[in-house]
Structures are given as structure tokens and as C-alpha cells.
Amino acid sequence: MDVEPEICRQLQFDWCGACGHWQAVKRSCCEACGRAGDLQQRLASGRAVIHAVTVVARGPTHAFRSLEPYTIVLARTVEGPLLMGHGERGAAIGDHVSASTFEVADVSLLRFVNAGAGTTTGGDG
Amino acid sequence: MREAFVRAASVTSFGRHEGKDSLDLMCEASESALGLAGLVREEIDGVLCGYSTTLPHLMLSTLFCERFVLRPDYAHGVQVGGATGAAMVMLAAELVRSGRCKNILVVAGENRLTGQSRDQSIQTLAQVGHPSREVPTGATVPAYYGLLASRYMHETGTTRADLAELAVLMRRQAALHPGAHLRSPLSLLDATNSRVISDPLHLADCCPISDGGAAVVVSREPGANEPVVVAGAGQAHWHQHISALADVMDTGSGRSAQLALQEAGVTVEEVEYLAVYDSFTITLAMLLEEIGFAPRGGAGQMARAGAFGAGGAVPLNTHGGLLSYGHCGVAGGMAHVVEAWLQLAGAAGARQVRRPGNAFIHGDGGVMSSHVSLVFRKAGR
Q1: Cβ A60–B140 below 8 Å, yes or no?
Q2: Which of A76, B117, B345, B360 has the fewest CB atoms inside 10 Å of its own CB, making it the most exposed?
Q3: What pLDDT, in 10s, does the model give residues A73-122?
Q4: What is the rounded distance in angstroms from the CA atom of residue B101 to the CA atom of residue B162?
Q5: Of A55, A57, A60, Cβ closest to residue B126
Q6: Burial class, B97, CB count within 10 angstroms (exposed 0-12 / middle 13-18 / buried 19+)
Q7: CA distance B169 to B77
């Protein structure tokens, strides 16, 4: 996959060296085992399964007007954490996807695109 | 240990209050609650107040006391989103039981509808999302709840028609309350055909943005009204962001409710009146089902069968809830508390249900993030 800066930022997770747990939201210690000292930043694979989908009729700012209606998804990464991003029109729970980026008003945003069947190894769909 | 009584509670009408600001609405509700409590200003020795997005002041409680002419021994604000009202009542009860205060005024109000533009309101509220991982995507609060709904419907088989039943029920309840924001009849067809906001949520699944205020007096003595005690309370705070919600089937509301019910010595089956947070229809369905007032995926069906109506087995949000009485922030959640008190005190007028002896109240803040539950009981029951 492309290793562009925005993808790197979005897929930068904390990985616990003690128990192997991954977390995306910044936390002061490992949510699973409670250890603080063994967290290290690691790049996640970008592979995920769609966990939830919504289609937004009207966005919060003018930057999103041209996209409306647009699809927002929660994707369960194969590493475990949920990531929020844009999805393809028609995205459905259980779809296997991979992370990419696109720009809205010069801001680079995460978008999950269909990875085709059988390209991911886990998930909860 | 002393008892803490809900001595009085009052809510303004919700909707458009042109020209009134947050303090005006807080004062209006407070004046009314003090009158009902039979107390004068000098007798209020504690004040707890909610936040206001249209008046983001560092010291809102002090500002309010200056305006309302109170000089309490104890005052501060509380901030846990939609759970704030219930959290303040819980804290007020603790302060009264401990002997710290005798009469606490719990108050909130906001001109959320007329005090800012629709876009400002949407943007302010969206900030409960994660600042780098969620908010930049262009997700709004309806989008966060749309995501919850999509997952919860997938897991439980809940349908859009099930959710619409809850919207229809809240509108039917609101029709009996002259203060409700939305009172025009809403049919099941109207609800399912309303325009998409954040699919699967449509307009009828979302509460309106309102102006309004609410106030509750918690006291050591019951006063002249039917004595109602705070019999139990509980909280749960397990996540802030939807990306960090481990399981839509276990958000913390069950835990919060269990703590409150246990303290009160009341089971789910023994609850006689329900006041449950309903910012969206999905919020109400998830809370009723996780806490156990309806089976998974069954809240809509129970509403359809009349279980939650005024004459049903367990009347729910007889004022119309956030979905139809309206939502002005903290006071929106407090309107549930006010209605529960009115029902227990036998003072709900045309909406009075058959003499409930207890009530279960639940508030939820963020994206099912902060939960506070209360059990009120008629004294001596």
C-alpha cells in the first residue's frame, strides 16, 4: 500500500509490547493489560472490515457541501481498533476494505475502499 | 443517614423563546421551582448548574447566582453532556444526605435554538467526537448516532419501523403537554418517510433543537408536596468516543442502572414509571434494551403494543421526551426528571398516569459515553 504521510498519521497506533494489544485512541497505558511502559508506535496494515455505516445528508461545514450525501464508516482494523473514515457509496457492514486517503478542502481524510473478497484475514463483520 | 427529597421541579415550555438568553431561561425555571417548593431565595444554600453552549462562561453557577440573587454556601457547574441533569440531582442528594446543604437548586437553561445558527449548533455539538480521528471526517452528532444505529440494527434486527414507533409514541405523549416543542400529530408513515438526516436516521428519529430551562429543588425536608425521595443513583463512564466504544450491546447504561436499582432495592420489573434519555430513537431503544426494560430489538414492538403509553404497563416520557418535548441541552435531560417528579407527586394534570410509586430516570451524554441513573420513590413506599 501507499505510505503517504496522512495514511501514516491515521494508521499510527500504539502497540503493547507486553500483551500485543493495539489501540488507536491515545491512552496513558495499555487498555488491555494496564502496563504503561511497553507502548510503542506502530503502523497498522490499513486492512479492515466495515463495522458500521451512515450516510450524512448535510455536513457540518461548507467544505463538505459538494460531497453530500457522503458515507461515513467505522472500520474494524485487523489489528483491532475501530477507525472512522469515509466509505464508498453503498458500503455495507462486513465489507473487506483497505485504507486510502482523499482531500476535502485541502485536508487529507481517510477513506476505506473495497479490498475485494478474501484479501483480509480477520474482523467482526 | 438522612433522606434527600425531590421537593419540587419545574420546566419552562420548550421551543422558541425569542430574545431570552440562557440566564433568563434558568431564572424562569428557578422562580417556578422555588414557588412549588415553598421556599424563598434565602433558604437555598446550594446551587448546581449545567453548562450552556450559547453562554460558555467559566463560572456559570456564580453568574447565575448573581442574576437570580442567591448567596449560597455551595455552588458550581457540572458537565457530562446529556447526563448532566441526572448527575446534578445525584450530587444534590449526596450533599443533602451528608448534611452539607439543606436546600439545593439544580438548574439549567439554554437558548440553543434562537441563540445561534443551526450550523454553529451542529459544529459545537460535533466536538464530542475525537478531535483528530473523528471530527475532521465531517461526521456530526447525528452521524455518530447513525453509526451506532447501523451497528445496533445489524446486531439485534431492529428495523427503521421499530425506531419510528418510538418517535410516534413521543409525539403522542407531547400532544398532551402544552409546553412541548413538537405537538403536531406524527404517524408511523410520516416518521418513516421523513427526510434522511444521517441514514439510517431520518428527521423523525432526531430530537429538535430548542430553547428552554428546567430546575429541581433537592431538600432535607419534603415540604408540602407529596414526599418523593431519591432512593438510588448510579453512574458509568466507559468511553468518550464512538471509536473507543468496545461493544454497542454494552455501553455502560446497564451498569449505571444496576447500581441505581440496587441502591433503591428495586428490580427492573418493579419500576412503575420510566424517564429515559431519547436524543435519537436509537438512543432510547438501546437504553431500554440494555437496561432490560425491553428485550433486545423489542423496544419498538413494545411501544407498538402500548406498553409505554400513559395507560401502559410502564409509562415512558409522558412529557414527550427530547424527541418531541424538545432538547435545549442540559435542561432537555432535566425535563425527564421534572416529569418523573410530577408523576410521583400526582401533579401531572392531564398526563397523570395511574399513581406510580417509583420512577427510573436515565441520562446519557456524548455517544452513549456518560451514563447516570436515578430511582425516585414516594416516601413510605
Answers
A1: yes
A2: B117
A3: 999 999 999 999 999 999 999 999 999 999 988 889 999 999 864 444 43
A4: 45
A5: A60
A6: middle
A7: 33
The per-residue pLDDT for range B26-66, each reduced to its tens digit, is: 999 999 999 999 999 999 999 999 999 999 999 999 999 99
Number of A–B residue contacts, CB under 8 Å: 99
Interface test with A, best of B137, B145, B198, B199 (most A CBs within 10 A): B137
pLDDT band at A124 (very low <50, low <70, confident <90, very high): very low
pLDDT at A7: 78
Q: Which three cell numbers stand for residue A3?
A: 505510505
Asked if A90 has any chain B CB less than 8 Å from its own CB, the reply is no
Residue A58 in contact with partner chain B when CB distance is under 8 A: yes
**Longest pairwise C-alpha distance within chain A:** 46
Alpha-carbon gap: B209 to the closest alpha carbon of chain A (Å): 15
The residue assigned the cell 409522558 is: B318
Identify the three-state secondary structure at position B374. strand
Closest chain A residue by Cα to residue B241 = A25
Query: What is the enclosing helix (H) or strand (E) of B360?
Result: strand B358-365
pLDDT of residue B126: 83
Q: What's the predicted TM-score (pTM) here?
A: 0.96
* Alpha-carbon gap, residue B141 to B367, rounded angstroms: 8
Asked if A84's CB is within 8 angstroms of B134's CB, the reply is: yes
Nearest-Cα distance to chain A for B124, in Å, is 10
Residue B307 vs residues B169, B179, B269: alpha-carbon distances, Å = 10, 24, 13
* Spatial distance between the Cα atoms of B85 and B308, rounded to a whole number of angstroms: 23
CB atoms within 10 A of CB A34: 10
Q: Where are the beta strands (DSSP E) in A57-106?
A: 70-77, 82-87, 96-104
Record the cell numbers describing residue B150, joined without a space.
447501523
The CA distance from B355 to A75, in Å, is: 48
Q: Judge: B119–A10 Cβ closer than 8 Å, yes or no.
A: no
Decide if A72 contacts A84 (C-beta within 8 A): yes
Report the gap between the CA of B118 and the closest CA in chain A (Å).
9
SS3 category, B65: helix
Type of residue numbered A37:
G
Chain A residues near residue B238 by CB distance under 8 angstroms: none
